[in-house]
Amino acid sequence: YYRPVPDYIGGGKSAGLTRLRELEASRAPVGLVLARWFVQFVTVTAMKMIIGLRNTVDIAKDANYRQALSLMRKRPAGVPLLTVSNHVSSMDDPGLISCLIPFDVLMTPNRVRWGIATQEIVFPQIPWANAFMGAGQVLPICRGGGIDQGLFMDFARVLAAGRWGHIFPEGRVIQTGTLGRDPITKRSRKEEKEKGRLKWGVGKLVAHSPVTPVLVPFYHLGMASVLPQHNVWEGGEFRNGVVSWRHIQGGHRVKVWFGDRVPFDDL
Question: How open is the CA angle 7-206-39, to the nearest 5 degrees?
Fold first, then answer.
């Protein structure tokens, strides 16, 4: 499996759980497997109730969706699965992702998705909270630390071991309905022309994997109504992404469409 040497220069503060790199990415101690199963079962079940029962999650059950389910359940040994989607709310993962995971996949922790989350928000310097996130197969990332930061390489190592990873190429929550474009934090026209609207992490993950990952995109609408957020003027600047977690909404319809797998064989 791919195991790069981490480099934390300019990568922000340590977020805990980085001892995972001391373990082989392809296997885990029994105690850790049990902890992952418990946390994932509780979290996914709760999210299915909070999001799936209070709202209607409508998945287009076409050939692409059936292909995605098949890839979640079984792939050739060592072949990673990388899913990508738009990022509409802070409940996309684990909320919406939980509604997409079948219970037979949930019962096997090494088939459940791995994700990344901003360390300063999701990984407080509280040991039990960090342990909970780690057992839920979420790794920290330093926003603004670049795609060569050690934290991102930890995620690349997990993917390279043949696991399923999910990532949001937009890099942040955007509720405008336009992919990768927010009126407050958007890139300039020059930056969009040079870099595009999306982050480069997906390409980096594909390039780092010794076995070409299977990449499956999906797109969803409606989560912005389930957990809306707003921009606030504070300290002389706009803060986007202000969320009221006590006001998770119900009674909305969330639509999900899966795309066909993206080939990289010609690269």
Answer: 75
